[in-house]
Amino acid sequence: MKYISEFYSALINYYMLPSILIYEDNDLLRESVVSMIKTNNALLCKGSFENVLQVQEQVKELHPDLIFMDIDMPGMTGIEAVKKIRKFNQELPIVMLTVFDDNQHVFDAICAGASGYLLKKHISDRLFDSINEVMAGGAPMSPSIARMVIASMQQRPTNAYQLTPREKEILTSLSKGNSYKLIAKQFAISMDTVRTHIKRIYEKLHVHSQTEAVSKAINEKLV
User: Which CATH code for domain 2-142?
Assistant: First the structure.
């Protein structure tokens, strides 16, 4: 009975691990990312695919907690795949994994609903940090991408949605990928106060999620 109990306990723990899907058409890189994830006993790679042609069916069947998504793949781009996923799942974290670091690809991905943007050259250094960050509610980005996003947002300041100074500060912090906990620490306020501010931001921007708020802020240069 002891061994049976231990077996079922291990099985339950296995299926409670954060699960990941990987979409990447470069076989060597895809296998490398899978191998990295397998070295971490706190993570589970549920599947890796060379294209996104069946992405809707795969996501619905495998129920991942996180997706790493390449952009340039045969048959359909990762950005189009993100749009398809967002039609039925608004909350699933999707981190773009790509070589593209130009404004258009970055903003197209974010506006499509991506939760983060990691350059492939930073995989070995940033993979696990990105997983922890996005699972904690943040939006991980390679440093150069974060700088690009912030620079673009600062080019044309506006307050068309009547955001208060504190709401603008919090929206800016949110757009940098900071979690609620980090925002609370940054402004020396409680988590409940952060949630209240973010709720009001959502109402003023007419959005329903962090991804939508950040996408709108970037696209319309609100902060």
Answer: 3.40.50.2300
Is the predicted pLDDT of residue 11 greater than 70, yes or no? no
pTM over 0.70: no
Map residue 97 onto helix, strand or coil.
strand
Provide the residue type at 152 as one letter: S
In the beta sheet, which residues pair with residue 22? Answer: 48, 68
Chain centroid to CA 27: how far? 23
Q: What is the CATH number of domain 156-220?
A: 1.10.10.10
How far apart, in whole angstroms, are the C-alpha atoms of residue 105 and residue 70?
A: 11
Coil, strand or helix at 99: coil
Q: What number is the average pLDDT over the span 37-58?
A: 95
Least confident interval from 10-19, 69-78, 89-98, 147-156: 10-19
CA distance readout (Å), 131 to 125, 146, 148, 193: 12, 17, 21, 26
Q: What is the distance in angstroms between the CA of the first residue and the CA of the last residue of the chain? A: 60
DSSP H or E segment with residue 20: strand 19-23
